[in-house]
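Table S2 (text version). Query chain:
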Amino acid sequence: MRTKNIAAGVGFLFFGALYAFLTSQLPRRLGNVPGPSFFPWVLTWCFLGLSAILLVQGLLVEAWHAPKPERETSVARRTVAGLLFLAVYLALLPFLGFLLTTPMAFAALMWAAGENRPLYIAGWSMGMTALLYLMFHYLFQVPFPAAPDF
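Corresponding structure-token output:
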């Protein structure tokens, strides 16, 4: 696990640097308004930060802290369940809107990842939805389209 995290961290940092170079070629934004290059820079910094965390985690983790390997069938089932939940989320999003479907999608994905504590799932799924809504609506000033039935 340690060498995989180190290799993935270095590879992701390289890809993030390439993405940052490509993002720097986009036209600059004018004034105090988010332009075409704003969100790619947000993605670039988040991606580079998470890649650095993965690399540091790979360098600092001890062998006795490594998680126990799961059976491959349970990993495959979780992956398929997560992809199915994402497909259902994308299908329901235009009809129910962001604020109704996103907490359900977060909860389903957390459950598919192996989380079983209902209060933990409910708190994180509603909290992350609220955080995303507030961040995009007020910070980035990106309006969310209303659901057609509400």
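Notes on Table S2: The mean pLDDT is 82. Residues 71-150 form one domain.
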